Amino acid sequence: RDVERSRGLGDVYKRQVTLSAAYFQEIHIALVISIMFSSFIIGVFSAEKARRRTGLKQYKIQLNQQAHLHY
């Protein structure tokens, strides 16, 4: 048996924990991106719905008024 190459159970456990943490980090990143994308799509849909409801000219007036409130 090659002692230098054999791993103890502690080393195997540490490696599994590290791989699990990396896996969950990837899942977390994918989840955040999907939530951000969904929020963007909902925002675009809501804006388009409001634009159609109020008419383009009135919508531009509302956007201009909102822009002045933020600055």
Largest sheet: none
**Helix fraction?**
over 70%
Distance between the termini: 72 Å
* Number of DSSP helical runs: 2
H/E order of the elements? HH
> How many DSSP-defined strands?
0
Structural class category: mainly alpha
**Gyration radius over CA:** 26 Å
Bin the strand percentage: under 5%
Average pLDDT: 80
Uncertain segments are none
Overall 3D form: rod-shaped
Structural notes for this entry:
The model has no long low-confidence stretch (mean pLDDT 80). This protein starts with 8 loop residues before the first helix and ends with a helix. With 71 residues, it is mainly α. It is built from two helices and no strands. Helix 1 crosses helix 2 (56-70). It has helices at residues 9-54, 56-70.
Give the topology.
Layout: H1 9-54, H2 56-70
Features:
mainly alpha, 71 residues, single chain, rod-shaped
Q: Brief overview, please?
A:
With 71 residues, the chain is an all-alpha fold. The protein contains two helices and no strands. 86% of the residues lie in helices and 0% in strands.
